[in-house]
Amino acid sequence: MRSIVAGLESASTGELVEAAAAIVGELARRSAPESGAACMELAEKLGAVVDQAEFALAGLIAVVDRTGEMKHWGLPSAQAWLRCRLGMRDGRAKERLALARQLPRLERVSTRLAAADLSYGYAATIADAVQRLGDDDCAVAEDILLTAADEGVSAGKVARLGGKIHDLVAERTGTERPPEDAARGYQRSWITVSRSMDGGCYLNGWLNSEDTAILDGTLAPLTKPAGTDDRRDLGERTAAALSSVLAGGHKATRVTVIADLATLTGDDKPGWLRDGTPVPAEQVRRLALTAGVSPLLLGTGNVPLYLGHTVRIASPGQRRVLETLYDTCAVEGCETPGFLCEVDHVDGWALGDSPTDIDKLTLCCGWHNRWKHTHPRQVQISRVDGRYRYRAGVARSRRPLAA
Questions:
Q1: Hey, which of 39, 150, 154, 399 has its CA 20 to 30 A from 337?
Q2: Are residues 115 and 43 in the same domain?
Q3: Are 89 and 96 in contact (CB under 8 A)?
Q4: Which residues are registered as beta bridge partners of 278?
């Protein structure tokens, strides 16, 4: 045994990693003993070894993160590297990255984890709890949290204790007070935003039933897959939906009522919503007294004639017309509401074929708009009753066909 240890001490880090891989590979091929008592003892010893391996892994991750080596391989961050190259789930990648970044500040945690005297679970929990604390507060928090761990408090309770420490520090410094509603049963909604070290942020909060209904009503239509090629999971689609709304795709709730001029001047002919729902003439006139009214010139077949802009970005008036014509994204099967879509140049602005004229514009959700730009030959375009429809994944001719 001593000769083996002596050999290991003279080996390089790369050689040790190779040796560990060989040993673990051989261990994985072995069957577990039949004795439950033996398995329990071996599992506890192996678990301690795995925790020590996590300490070694954290040291390697820290160097990759500090040097930015992952960017040379086309990966934007260390977290993305852990997800893509090591196959970690996002939560585990964040946890390991936080540990790698905080261990240099956690001297006692680092020493004990390396000696298998502290489990990885406690070490990762403590690292997460102190990552937004200053060095002095970090040292105090480390002592408190390690004491709790040594007394047998569960890792989950240690995490909650770390949250209380952070709230007390924030309250003392006046940088981020904990929401008062949290102490009163969450009677009102609240959200906190915590910046991460790689430029992102974490969202945490609680919404009451009314605000939850507003959130669902706004984001739910955008969280559906945009098509069969949309491989994003629900979390990714929800984040994209939130970004779309925050970027201005959803300025305010609007209801478009379409009516003839005669209705506004006293005729009994009803108006109608974009989905065809009739609106009594009296109600149309009452809405017109308080709502914003935009005149719209229409020709035969309700095709817009003129809105007066031939610039790169569609005008607000042009967008209002398009939202009146299109209930959803122009791509068949995409249910993204039109008012949350982007204005798309049918033949592509970059190619110079599509001016910003109302009869050359349509609405596309953000995902399909970018997909169409990168796959221009895989979209079949048709036009029926003044409205463009796209079929994705079908080769098309150079120019769209008019109905």
A1: 399
A2: yes
A3: no
A4: 272
